[in-house]
Design a protein that fits this description.
Layout: H1 2-14, H2 17-46, H3 51-75, H4 81-101, H5 105-132, H6 136-172, H7 179-194, H8 197-201, H9 214-219, H10 223-243, H11 247-255, H12 259-287, H13 289-309, H14 313-339, H15 347-376, H16 379-400, H17 412-418
Helix pairs in contact: 2-6, 2-7, 3-5, 3-15, 4-5, 4-7, 5-15, 6-7, 6-12, 6-14, 10-15, 10-16, 12-13, 12-14, 13-14, 13-16
Length: about 425
Amino acid sequence: MKKIFGSYMEGYKSFHPDARRFLVLSFLQAFAANIFGLVFNLYVLELGYTRDFLGTLGAIPGLTIAALAIPLALFCSGLSARKTILAAMALSLAAMTGMSFFTSRAALMLFSVLAGTAGALMAITAMPLMASLTSDEDRQRLFSAQYASSMIAAFLGNLASGWLTALWSAALYGGAETSGAYRLTLLTACIMLLASAPYAFGMKERKRSGPANGAAAFAGLAIGPALMVLAPQLIVAFGAGMIIPYLNIFFKSGFDLPVAALGYCMALMQLAMAAGAMIGPATVRRYGRVRALITFQTLSIPFLALMGFSGALLPALLAAFARTMLMNAGWPIYSVFMLDHFQPAQHQAASALYTTCWNLANSAGARLSGRLQMDFGFTLPFLITITCYCAATLLLSRKFLKEDSKKAVLPTAIKEEIE
């Protein structure tokens, strides 16, 4: 691990200055988002809403991203990444602040739409930007570094969220975890988000790679092959939507954890994600991208089952840490795997298509899970997630495993752009 960490530190110094700014920006945004995210579900339930409404609320940002990713990619194709990121940050701040102050059903849903719009802008910007700032040789390292740094920030954000809520509860509410204590933590996250603004302003005006007319990039996509590349991750997205948005509810309701302990547990899971992301590039170099993805997903399935059905806190937590590390080790690997199937001029369009499909699948899983939890608890959602992970792994094996047996050759268009 020391050797891996040293490799990342060396790589950080060699990254393009805007890549380094984006890494810090991602870190700070993830820190703020996870302070907010840990207690938001608990805040909504404390306001008196049902889990069914929580499922609806949780699905709205993803559905908004799915609806707007492609239109925004077309609209923003002539804008720089810097302007798009700044717009996303402004919308995200407005959404987080609004959800902290306004508690009506309509207001929460409206600001969730705003949060989804911000997420769509970041989603269509992040991967093409990172790809444009690297050659194929160090692309995997940048993607993994960005993901790992975001997960470390999430670790710290979850810890801070638990501590802050406990502090507000003790200082102002007699130790009770009330909606007021949760609201103060949410507002603290809004303040933290502002700390990332200078790094966005410091980025150079850089237009996206590809044609200024975004429609031209979409027109060049072969939809059938594109959807086949996306399909394994979309199956995972549906399964993840059944469980991952509700992990805080799963552990708090199933094991009666106080919010400070919950924050600590969620924080450790983010650290497990970071560890997984850091080992990803070394695994890819040794086994190839597809074999690495298959290995991580296959190993995660038994831990997912243990987490859902052990019924004991310690085994469930340890299994959750292992599953989290393994599944999330594959995310930056898949991102590069996906982009490598498209020419650079199509990266924005491919990213928008992936974002749309992923969020549709994930939101569908989250919405269905909210309904199923009311009738079956977490038993059926866990079974569905296990089935999805098995199906995605089988599809990768059948359709893409042969790619690792071929000599790694960059597409001509990519080679020419790098040269």
